[in-house]
Structures are given as C-alpha cells and as structure tokens.
C-alpha cells in the first residue's frame, strides 16, 4: 500500500521543491537556492504559509518590484551558469504581469527561473475577484495567460494532484540545455488551500544532473570534413559555450588549431582578453579586429550562439560564400542560416571535433593575421581610454578606469543603453566567466537587480554594475534590496543626460534629436538628478566624482566598503568607441528631412550585403 502524507497543494509544492538537489563542483546543493517573493491576496494566505514553514531549507527574500526580483533570479542563474535556480513568486494581477518582462529576458537568453503566481478561482464562485481581468468570450483566460508567449513551460494547477506530474516537467525544462528557459505555474486561490493525500515517494530527495547530449556521429564527421577544407576558419563563442563549461576546452582547441576566436555578447568571458587566439568581440558592438576576420572567413564554427543580429551585423558581416558549422544544444539555434547543424553539448562536441581533426591546423598566415588585427585593436583601445583634458570623460575612459581597478574575479554587469557597446569593446576580461551583459532582450532595469542576484550567488566576489542615468531612473529599488539583504555590489552610474545611445541611432539615421536626451524632451527645464543622494537615501554608501582620477580612487574605496556602494560620474553622451558592424533598422522611405532620405539610401545599400537565409 502506498504511504501518503496529507498536505495542502502549496505545502506539497514547497516540500517537493525543497527536496530537489544538484551537484556543483563536487558538492551536493539545493537545486532551488531560494525564493524571491512579494505576497498579496492571491498567495499570502497559502503559499506564504508553506514557505514560512520551510524557510530554513528554502529561504525567502522580499523584493521591491516583481519584475526586478525575477530579474535578480535571472542574474543569479547567469552567475551560476544555469546550474542552480531561484524561484520568483507573486500574487495575481499587476504583480504577475510585472514579471512578464523578466520572463521575456529569461526566455530570449535561455535562462532558468521558476515563476509562480497566484490565480483566480477554479470554482468561479466569487468572480470577478479583485485584480481579475475578464475576457467576455473565454472565462478561462486571465493575465497569467500572458506568460505563454515568454515561457518554455506553462501550467495552471486546477486540481491538487496535478503537481505530481507538473513539477517534474517544469524541473526538466529548467535543466534541459536545449529547451532551457523560464517555467511558469499558476496557482488558483481555491486550489492552494485544498489538502490531498500525496504519496511520500513524491518528496524523496532527488539529485539532478544536467544532461550532456553528444552530437550525431555522421553529422560530426561532416563538420570535421568541412573544417578541414577551411583556409580562413573563425570560431564564434556564444553563451552556450560558457553554460556547457566548455571554456577551457574551447580555449585550448582554438590555440592548438590556430583558429582565431571571437566572442558574442553572451559569450564574452569565454576566454581572457589576452588569450593567444582571442580576436575580440564580433558584430554591431564588436571590434574592428573580429569584424575584419569575419568578413574574410570561409568557415565559421559557431559554438553555443543563437546568431542574433548584433552578432552577425544583421547578416552582413560575412562573405556570401562563407560556410557555417553550428554547435548548439538547441536544434532551433543550430539550424539557422543554412548552417551545418551539430546538435549537442558544446563541451562534448568540441572534444570530439578535436579528437577527429588529426594533425590539421589553420594556415599560419591566417592565424598571424588574427594576432595582427587584434594588436591593432588593442592599440586603438589604449588611445580611446587614454585620459584627456576634456571636462567630461567618455564612456571608454570611464570603462577603462573601472576595468583597471577591478579584481580578476570581479563580475561586470550591464544590459542596456550605451554601456553594452562600450564594455564589449573596452572591458578586458581578466578571468573567464566574469562578464554579464544581458543583451538577448536588452532589458533596461536588469542591471541592479542582477547585481543583487549575482552577489547572492557568489559572496566571494563583488559584482560591478555599470548603468546610465536612464536605467537608474527606470529601476533602482534593488539598491535598497541589496542593502537590506547584505549582498554588496558596486554600482557605477554614468550620467549622460538621457537616452544617449538611442539619440545616437536617431541622429545616425537622419532624425533630429527628439525625446531622448532630457534637454530634447518636453520639459519645463532640464534637471539633473543627484543619484548619489538618492542612493544614499536607500542605505547605500555613495560618492559623486568629477574626474577620472577621482573615479579610480572611488572604485578603490568602494572595494573596501561593507555594503552596496554607488559612484556617480557625468559622462559624454556623444562620443562612442568605433568598431561596429552594419545594423539593419527601418528608415523612412519618405521624409521632409534630407538627412533621413540619405540615410534610407545608405540603408538600402547595406541590405545588398546581407546573407539570405532562414
């Protein structure tokens, strides 16, 4: 006879999640490290009761905003390289909808986070309940259905027994390298309270291992044959290489075979800046070195990248005749643009390719070209970062100073605005896996929240978060969260007077400056926020600096403080580091502005260089 234990559905859910484990670096740890939660009427009476009882095994952290706490969970998962997961729990209505943006971040970046939201009543007896959005033609729909577009797994529990089948499926998605992304579970209020006789075996401790699917042998042999024909091969390392733990193998492979290695935004930090095969970041926010090699490469080995437009220069960065070999755990990503798809784990695939190549190496002249181009790029970076007598420093100069003061293991975090391009180009990675630029969704507001999550993930290193004034104004409440929780980050706020990089794009495509820089908005008068005072009001230590020398001293001071520390500096919103590839954006075909008409003609010319594919 099956032994059972009588629990409410939410008590059973929490007990199950608390008994899932994984192994990281030889140590058994909880698979779910904790919960970020904001309680409301849809989850406070039942889910919170279950979480309170389990808080020693599954700690709960109070967020300030549902979106930011889910972003913190994503920052945690990134810092853990998808090996450990956080939960984000919210009530129904606005709280749940606030998390949709974060679900989009996790979905586009292939990152695991478990989202749990309250829901309306299955019985519908009290309908419409507070915060219920009713659909007149379909009463089964509410705001939680919005998550279906941005999650890998979605379920609504309408009977307490359903979690027995649902929760293992959610965990499987969170751990699947090919299908990894956010999982969402809706908990109707009347179902949360219902007790059920659950089998005790459902709660047995389970240790999970992330699978490493190896590639098909015939497809791998075909990839090796193609690679051996290459005269000018190029490796593009993406985030999947890092999540696979393939950094050391890929670094060794590139150096031994003489293949230049470029990095995507998610892949930056696969190797150190000074690795012998490294040629810099590629694409729209890339380097002249990597982009020059991409234009000449005949075979591109893409490892763990979804080949987004910022990597490919909207598919204009490569020769029309270039061949792609795409190693990816996800079939969808591996098959893009007529690539030879090698579907499997990056580490397994790289090791098998290495073993099958025999004594093949890239032409030494091509290898040397990579070194020469990268040396030119480094010389250019030195020039961009060199201090001048200009009263307002550039992004390149600010990034250079912060980079010079960062420790080898300090984690750099940014996401949106002008900083992604500037740190991609100017930040010289000192140790693998110390760089996090969220650009799959380019979510303004990710940065500070991710700093909190990353600090929680690894208390032995300090996240350095770099943001602009626009991002700070959009979402800053987790400065307070990190102070409350005791998870320190160093936050650098570059105040350039508005949304400067979008103003740059607006101007570059012929548009007048409009509604981006504060001075160009409909305001009574331009006003500059004192970010240092604002952050100080949330409990952070702060310093406002006026020069690059002061910035360097402030970063050194911040590294020795005992809590989140915020440094603000006015920066130039009009000077940018060059090196970009072409980007395809819509430009009006008809306009009264001559600059726009000229930009449209230039855009049409650029589209002639695009590689046609699917």
- The CATH class of the largest domain, by name, is Alpha Beta
Large-scale geometry: globular
* Number of DSSP E strands: 23
Helix content: 25-40%
Question: What's the Cα radius of gyration?
Answer: 25 Å
Parts with pLDDT < 50 across at least 5 consecutive residues: none
Strand content: 15-25%
CATH architecture assignment name of the largest domain:
3-Layer(aba) Sandwich
CATH topology name of the largest domain:
Rossmann fold
What is the helix tally? 24
CATH superfamily of the largest domain: Thiamin diphosphate (ThDP)-binding fold, Pyr/PP domains
Main beta sheet: strand number and arrangement? 6 strands, parallel
Number of domains: 4
Query: Taking strands numbered 1, 2, ... along the chain, how are they ordered across the largest sheet?
Result: 5-4-6-7-9-8
Give the structural class.
alpha/beta
Q: Which whole number gives the mean pLDDT?
A: 96
How far from one another are the termini? Answer: 55 Å
